[in-house]
Specification:
Elements: E1 2-12, E2 15-26, E3 30-34, H1 41-48, E4 56-62, H2 71-74, E5 78-81, H3 93-102, H4 112-119, H5 134-147, E6 152-156, H6 164-175, E7 181-185, H7 189-194, E8 197-200
Parallel strand pairs: 3-7, 3-8, 5-6, 6-7
Antiparallel strand pairs: 1-2, 1-4
Bound molecules: adenosine-5'-triphosphate.
Length: 205
C-alpha cells in the first residue's frame, strides 16, 4: 500500500508548522521524519496517520494499484506508538492484551506468554500498568505496535526512556519488518539510520 500526502499544511493559530508537504510513502520502505524540537515532526506524523486533519491539503491511503482506501478503513491498517499515546493504566498486562485483542488491535491468538517473550520482559502478572517503570511501559507500547502486525507502523520518538539493551531490541525488531510501511519521527541518529529515507521537516516550512 501507499500513503500519499498532497500539499499538506498545518497551522496552529498564527504559526505555520508544516508548509506544502507532498510525498509518497510505500510498503516495504522505512522513513525517518527529522527536525529539531518543536519543528513539527509529531504534528506531521499524526496527520499522516489520519489522527488529525491538515489545515490544507490531504492524505490518502492507496492500494498497490493506486485505488484509494476508504478513510474509515485506514485506522485498522495502522499501529502507532508515541509518548503521548497512553496505555490503560488501571489494567494488568494480561487485561490490556485481552482488551486490545477484542478491539482487533492485536492478533486473536496472541497469549500473554508469547507477548512477554517477544518484549523480553517477565513482569509480575498482577501488577497494574501504572506501576511499571517508564521504560517498561514504553517497551510494552512498542511491543503492541509491532505485534499488531499492521501494514503501516508509526513511531514517535520510539526509544524514549529505553536503556541500551531495550534500544537494541527495538532496532532489531524494526529490521525484521521487511513488508511494512514504517515512519519514525525522531532526532536520534540510531533511529534515523534504521530508515531507508530521511525527510527533514525544515524543508517544508
Ligand atoms: N494542539 C496544538 N495547539 C497549538 N500548537 C501546537 C499544538 N500541537 C503542536 N503545536 C505546536 O506545533 C509546533 C510543532 O510541535 P510538534 O510537537 O509537532 O514538534 P516536534 O518536532 O514533534 O517536537 P519535539 O521534537 O519536541 O517532540 C510547536 O510549536 C508546538 O507548540
Amino acid at each position: 500500500m501507499k500513503i500519499l500526502a498532497e500539499h499538506v499544511e498545518k497551522k496552529f493559530r498564527q504559526e505555520w508548522v508544516v508548509r506544502s508537504f507532498s510525498y509518497q510513502f510505500e510498503s516495504g520502505q522505512s522513513y525517518a521524519l527529522t527536525g529539531p524540537n518543536g519543528s513539527g515532526k509529531s504534528t506531521l506524523l499524526r496527520i499522516l496517520a489520519q489522527y488529525s486533519l491538515p489545515t490544507k491539503g490531504q492524505v490518502t491511503f492507496l492500494h498497490e494499484d493506486f485505488s484509494s482506501i476508504e478513510s474509515d478503513q485506514c485506522h485498522s491498517l495502522i499501529s502507532y506508538a508515541a509518548p503521548y499515546v497512553e496505555l490503560i493504566e488501571e489494567f494488568t498486562l494480561s487485561e490490556l492484551l485481552n482488551f486490545l485483542i477484542q478491539l482487533k488491535a492485536l492478533p486473536a491468538q496472541l497469549s500473554l506468554a508469547q507477548f512477554q517473550e517477544y518484549i523480553e520482559l517477565q513482569p509480575d502478572k498482577s501488577k497494574y500498568i501504572k506501576n511499571y517503570s517508564s521504560g517498561m511501559r514504553q517497551k510494552i507500547k512498542l511491543g503492541i505496535a509491532l505485534m499488531a502486525d499492521k501494514p503501516c507502523m508509526f513511531f514517535d520518538e520510539p526509544t524514549t526512556n529505553l536503556d541500551e539493551k531495550a534500544k537494541n531490541w527495538f532496532y532489531q525488531k524494526i529490521k525484521e519488518q521487511s513488508n511494512q510501511l514504517i515512519i519514525i519521527a525522531s532526532n536520534e541518529a540510531a533511529e534515523i539510520n534504521l530508515c531507508q529515507h530521511r525527510i527533514s521537516i525544515l524543508d517544508f516550512k
